[in-house]
Amino acid sequence: MRSVSRVVWAMASSCLLFLLGCKQSLPTAPSGLTTGVVIFEHANYLGQSAHVTMDIDDLKDTTDGPCVRSDGIGADTRTYLDWENCISSIRLAPGWRVTVYRDDDFKGQSLEVTADVANLQLSQGSCDHGGFNDCISSIRLQRP
Q1: What's this model's pTM, rounded to 2 decimal places?
Q2: 8 assigned to some structural domain
Q3: How many domains does the chain have?
Q4: Looking at the domain assignment, is residue 3 inside a domain?
Q5: Is residue 48 part of a domain?
């Protein structure tokens, strides 16, 4: 019976990966940050987190994010979980820098981050939630 459950689980996992297509899943935050940046759902490094080690030109293309986004009408509505417009704090690995952008493809208003930011609402920016809180659509990293 256990082997049947494992086969079913493996098949279900494979189907899920196929359905997700080219969306990328971001890993959770490491305990000892040595590379990249960690993005957090809430201020003060709270809520869901993800470890980012490469540029992301459109946060809509990530999976397993904490924010729900829907598109379509009626029965054709699709729901997604991603990181677009869902970042409220950032933690950097030593020596790393990140530039966050309001729009995808590294466009629009930007904020260069050179140190941890506990609350993006208090940073310079003109987002509806204040500062750069919950309005980041793309991320560009600079390695040391």
Answers
A1: 0.75
A2: no
A3: 1
A4: no
A5: yes
- Number of other CB atoms surrounding residue 67 within 10 Å: 16
Its domain, for residue 96, covers 23-142
Task: State the CATH number of the domain containing residue 122.
Answer: 2.60.20.10
Q: What is the pLDDT of residues 8-67, one digit of tens each?
A: 444 444 444 444 444 555 555 555 889 999 999 999 999 999 999 999 999 998 878 998
pLDDT at 124: 83
Q: Which of 74, 87, 108 is CA-nearest to residue 29?
A: 87
Closest by CA to 132, choosing from 140, 143, 142, 122, is 122
Residues 6+ away with beta carbon under 8 Å from 112: 97, 98, 99
State the Cα torsion 45-46-52-55 to the nearest 10°: -80
* Locus of tokens 């590379």: 35
